[in-house]
Amino acid sequence: MTAGVQRVDPVRPHDRRPSRGPCNRGSAFVELSLVFGLFLAFVAATFQLGCAIWTWASLSHAVAEGVRFASMHSDENPAAPPPNMSAGDDPTRAAIEYVVRRNAIGISSGQLTVQVAWSAGRVPGSVVTVSAQYPFSLFMGPLMGIGKNMSIARSSSAPIVN
To answer: Is 0.90 topped by the overall pTM?
Structure first.
């Protein structure tokens, strides 16, 4: 070595860890638990929203199929009675309700309420309206303060053409 020059190894920043005091121990675990709880709540709320959208879309499809079926069946062209019709029921109304329940995919047909209304009788040119309502239970509702149940309803109208 040359005289007067002393070689010193520099301390690299990544070799030295800052010392944690006694107050900072375990703070990473607490922060993780808080963030993980919020993350799980977000995932659960996203799942619940997806289920609600699925139910809404399925109910929309079922009502559209029901009104399409109803627009093709007037008093001049009545619908055949569905297989589960009880005596005394209106065969056309029962057939429309059967079509709506059959097309409501992923929805419990026992909880589905279907209503059919005609504007001026069942003659070609009058308007038929098919409505359906389904109670949707929210598992995240009480946590968000919006209640445990909500109702999803859809309605569609079309003129009778046949």
So the answer is: no
